[in-house]
Design the sequence.
């Protein structure tokens, strides 16, 4: 029996909604899931490690990668560039490794074309007020950045119907249980 292609789980949703936490929880429970490490021109935050959270590159390096067609998708988000490397991801999926993506809505829409067998999940904040509170509490971004992120969040929420699944993150444990179920069901899916 040949090895099944890995599951591509694309998780999207506004900044601060808890995507990162949910993804970490799933990866802790299921060791076969690998994180798709994106490239970004954003400066690293204090606790971020190059090659683990992101590959941090200059605008010039990023531009070069676009020209060399290295990205499965890329987008400008909150004023910085972010992109998913094409070759690494495809290789992992082909080897039967499950891959989880933390990307914005523009990126998810682009990936629909390339990863048509992926599961597209949108994490929804309980409300905009709650999202603002969480972004302030996280305090890793400036006041201006928080404002930009909230404006983008409104646009992202409007596009949530594009996704296969919507999980409202009002209760972390419950939201996690939903994500876990989606992952487990997708493992059982018949893929051609
Ligand atoms: P942050 O700067 O907070 O790490 O991420 C900002 C936004 O960029 C988040 O919504 C995150 O999901 C998104 N993002 C991270 N990596 C990628 C990527 O490779 N492509 C796209 N399109 N968005 C990404």
Sequence:
């Amino acid at each position: 029996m040949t090895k099944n292609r890995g599951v591509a789980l694309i998780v999207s949703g506004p900044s601060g909604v808890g995507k990162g936490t949910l993804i970490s929880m799933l990866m802790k429970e299921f060791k076969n899931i690998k994180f798709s490490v994106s490239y970004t021109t954003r400066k690293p935050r204090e606790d971020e490690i190059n090659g683990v959270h992101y590959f941090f590159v200059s605008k010039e390096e990023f531009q070069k990668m676009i020209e060399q067609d290295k990205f499965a998708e890329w987008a400008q988000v909150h004023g910085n560039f972010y992109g998913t490397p094409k070759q690494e991801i495809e290789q992992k999926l082909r080897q039967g490794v499950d891959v989880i993506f933390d990307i914005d809505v523009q990126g998810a829409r682009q990936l629909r074309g390339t990863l048509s067998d992926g599961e597209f999940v949108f994490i929804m904040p309980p409300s905009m007020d709650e999202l603002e509170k969480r972004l302030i509490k996280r305090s890793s971004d400036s006041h201006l950045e928080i404002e930009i992120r909230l404006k983008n969040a409104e646009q992202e929420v409007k596009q949530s119907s594009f996704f296969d699944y919507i999980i409202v993150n009002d209760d972390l444990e419950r939201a996690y249980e939903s994500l876990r179920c989606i992952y487990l069901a997708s493992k059982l899916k018949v893929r051609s």
Observations:
- The mean pLDDT is 94.
- Strands lie at 8-12, 33-35, 38-40, 54-56, 71-77, 80-85, 98-102, 119-124, 165-168.
